[in-house]
Design goal:
Blueprint (H helix, E strand, L loop, with lengths): L5 H12 L5 E5 L1 H5 L13 E3 L2 E3 L1 H4 L2 H6 L1 H16 L5 H13 L3 E5 L5 H5 L6 E3 L2 E8 L8 E2 L15 H6 L8 E5 L8 H4 L1 H10 L2 E5 L6 H12 L3 E5 L5 H8 L3 E3 L3 H11 L2
């Protein structure tokens, strides 16, 4: 169970030892789930406004925020409260070790907005948070990337009660501008200034080996990253307890699928290279 073949072990060690080999990691909700963070599309994602239930894909939009800003904030704060107690797991820590080992030959692209890679110790300049980071907020209706820390609300908010006025006041800046979570919403597009999307794509174009970790590739840029590496002849190693189209694509393109949690397989890969 959870074994790495001799063939893959050899490929991995050769890649790590090659001073010209560029290695990138692409992480999704699976690695955060191992730290106890519910996946975005899980059952806890649904939210009621009035008599209507909305899905995460409906809540996480500019349109919904413009029409129901405090209800959307309430939904996000409910999620943020659960994130705050989460700690990096062995998978996160292995990626910190990998960065230290590879230096400039490593970049980390993450779809996760929990900030756990940074909390674990990966360098901010090495981590491309292509969907944002819920530890920050920024002015709504502004293209300025100036980020403010998310207020540290210490009590869990009742989802059945309106958002308290004291909380609302902390979700505005000193000039009274309404803030928004620093995340990419479903009706928005990727951009470099806010989400470093061009840097992520450039890393994929230069990569010789891609680790895809805990992601199903449900959004567009991760899918482009996967295909870019494969089409350029790079090796793909997919780590996921489930079989996804990412794992299928990895296998078809001559790569590998390690079926299991990242907290098991990433430390095993690091152990192979000391």
């Amino acid at each position: 169970m959870h074994q790495i073949s001799e063939t893959l072990a050899g490929i991995w060690k050769t890649a790590v030892d090659d001073p010209d080999c560029q290695i990138i990691a692409l992480t999704g909700a699976g690695i955060s789930a191992e730290s106890g963070i519910p996946t975005f599309r899980g059952e806890d994602g649904y939210w009621k406004i009035g008599s209507m239930n909305y899905t995460p894909m409906e809540m996480a939009t500019v349109e919904k925020f413009r029409n129901y800003p405090w209800e959307v904030w309430h939904w996000y704060l409910n999620r943020i409260y659960k994130h705050r107690s989460a700690q990096p797991n062995d998978g996160h820590r292995a990626l910190v070790e990998l960065e230290k080992l590879l230096g400039e030959r490593f970049q980390l692209i993450t779809q996760n907005v929990d900030g756990l890679h940074l909390k674990a110790g990966n360098s901010p300049e090495k981590v491309y948070e292509i969907h944002g980071n819920l530890n920050y907020m920024r002015i709504f209706d502004s293209s300025r990337p100036n980020l403010l820390p998310m207020p540290n609300f210490v009590e869990e908010l009742d989802p059945n009660e309106p958002l308290p006025e004291a909380v609302k006041s902390e979700l505005q800046d000193e000039a009274g501008n309404l803030m928004r979570p620093h995340v990419l919403w479903f009706d928005e597009i990727y951009n470099e200034e806010l989400y470093r999307s061009e840097s992520a794509l450039k890393a994929a174009q230069e990569a010789d080996l891609l680790l895809t970790i805990g992601t199903t590739g449900a959004t567009s840029l991760p899918a482009v990253i996967l295909k870019t590496v494969a089409q350029n002849g790079g090796t793909i190693i997919d780590i996921n307890p489930e079989v996804t189209w990412f794992s299928d694509y990895a296998m078809i393109s001559g790569g590998y699928h390690l079926k299991g949690p990242s907290g098991v397989f990433l430390p095993k890969l690091m152990k192979l290279v000391g």
